């Protein structure tokens, strides 16, 4: 990682993604989680307060040492054991069918190969295991989508590889998950912010034939 991506981007993300509005969305996204959980893109631990009581353990996959350090106080405030388990969501060092649930929030946008990461999550989840996703991504509105594609090169350089134009639902389904619940909407804000604000809140599971 470069100095900007390693030291600045995690702090920017921690500040930008901890609003009351996003906190409520995190609560909704995390609601179905249960049992042994793997979270890729753990970041500064902004989801920790929203884990429901049904979560037993958390395996946190986080590439940034700065992000992991920023999460320390949040990890100390929870009774749920949180262990750092790897740096790369595309290559999980975990056994097949060893987790009950998986969580990804505002991370699929930066992973170089999001389908590979989602396929890895499907591999380590048990049949019927839950995937919970909260992400920004491709808008269905053509004018907004055009701006997302135009802005993508700048966004990737400024925000640690973040993409604006990924179709989150298509990625999840392409990795073999069955989508149970999907909400899409723009975050509150001015129309100029729409390329960054189209949001997917999604719950899915590993089907029996997956």
What can you see in these coordinates?
Helix 5 links the parallel strand 4 and strand 5. Helix content is 36%, strand content 25%. It is globular, with a radius of gyration of 16 Å. The relative contact order is 0.15. It has one domain: Vaccinia Virus protein VP39 (Rossmann fold, 3-Layer(aba) Sandwich), CATH 3.40.50.150. The chain contains eight helices and seven strands; from the N terminus they run H-H-E-E-H-H-E-E-H-E-H-H-E-H-E. The protein has a seven-stranded mixed β-sheet, sandwiched between helices. It has 210 residues and is α/β, with parallel strands linked by helices. The longest helix is centred in the last third of the chain and has 17 residues. The mean pLDDT is 95.
